[in-house]
Amino acid sequence: MSRSAVTALMCVGVLGVGVLVSALAIAAPSSTAPPAGTELSGKTVFLDPGHQGTAHSENLQRQVNDGRGGTKDCQTTGMTTLDGVPEHTINWKVSELVRSSLESLGATVETSRADDTGWGGCVDDRARAASESGADVAVSIHADSTSTTTDADKHGFHLIVPTLPIPSAAADAAQSEGGRSASTLMRDSYVRAGFEPANYAGVENGIQERSDVAGPALTTVPLVFVEMGNGSNPGDAALLESSDGQLKHAIAISTGIIDYLLGAETASTPAAAATTTAAAPAATATTDTAAPAATSTGPAGPAAEGRSALSRLLESVSPYVNAFGVDGLAGLATPDNVSSVSTFARGLLKQILTDR
Predict the structure, then answer these.
(1) CA distance 10 to 3
(2) Neighbours of 110 (CB within 10 A)
(3) How many CB atoms lie within 10 A of CB 106?
């Protein structure tokens, strides 16, 4: 298929998303339909791309508060994938895509580090920055590793949640309520995007409970801790290393955040029962029973059931990433059609084109 034919086909699909955006706006009372690009106005997200670049002289072994009465190393270097791509760079690129997408919807986004070269702070520094931001939700973006060589048997994503209770009452309240809700929604978003939950380290349905990760025990706003995949596994590593794979991860993370911030409109799909694959449009995913529409529960965020209409629209970009890759998506950003492409897609495309 020629490049022009690919682009034309993608325009049909993604312009259809724009039509759906308009349809949703028409269906809702005009007083409740926010203008495009303002859907997340008033919301703040703190993004923590894990680890940092190598251009620093900090002592990574310096001991800092672990949030549970002990200490741990200030920071670690992060893993390196099979093809030699450092985790800190993968985390940074995915975080930038997520940031661009959320900002294009009107959200305020704060980050733990400003670039992928220098220092990003100790684990307690990042938790403090997230807490002081007063964010509606914080998301720490990481990738895992199980071996310094190839590990074909262990694969998949997972969300780390803290063992409860947490000594800090404020952190315990944030992570036992909003943090668990947001983590569940992020898990569901990953499953709908076609990612498989991890099959190692005691992960159950994409969730791993741990008491040795300082971030959740020190953070007083709801926190989601994402391990995108296993850099030691060839399949996971290929996605983590590639622009297409990083975009798929960014879409999954963005939709999970949007679901938490805006509330759910359809029933959540449990990880164990999800059947949607990345090759099929996310809008076709169904569940056997429909739950009542969930609504926001205040500062802690919406209930963990379901997904927002906006996130379903964002997910509809994923099949085109799978079929045509980042190059195909980039072809959509032309003067003739950019105004018709949905706001969140423009945000993602803007960052992709900036990076290329």
Answers:
(1) 11
(2) 17
(3) 17
| 102 contacts 61 by C-beta, under 8 angstroms | no
Q: Please report, for residues 26, 32, 33, 102, 355, the alpha-carbon distance to residue 23 in angstroms, rounded to integers and kept in the order given.
A: 5, 14, 11, 22, 32
Whole-number Å distance between alpha carbons of 44 and 25: 23
DSSP state letter for 203 = -
The string of DSSP letters for 22-67 reads HHHHHHS-TTT-PPTT-TTTT-EEEEEE-S--S-----TT-EEE-S
For 274-323, the pLDDT digits (tens) are: 333 333 333 333 333 333 333 333 333 443 446 787 787 777 777 777 77
Tokens at residue 316, please? 């509809």
Taking the model in full, what pTM does it have?
Answer: 0.80
pLDDT at 314: 74
Q: Strands, E, within the chain: which ranges? A: 44-49, 63-65, 71-73, 108-111, 137-144, 158-162, 207-210, 223-230
Rounded CA-CA distance 245/265 in Å is: 28
Query: Active-site residue 227, yes or no?
Result: yes
Q: Which of 96, 227, 241, 265 is catalytic?
A: 227
Instruction: Count Cα atoms within 13 angstroms, Cβ side, for 62.
Output: 11
Quote the CA–CA distance of 124 and 48 in Å, as a whole number: 12
Report the SS3 class of residue 69.
coil
Beta bridge partners of 86: 80
Single out the residue of 329, 322, 319 nearest to residue 353, CA to CA. Answer: 329
H helices, E strands: number in the chain: 11, 8
Are the CB atoms for 168 and 246 separated by under 8 Å? no
Q: Where are the alpha helices (DSSP H) in 134-179?
A: 169-174
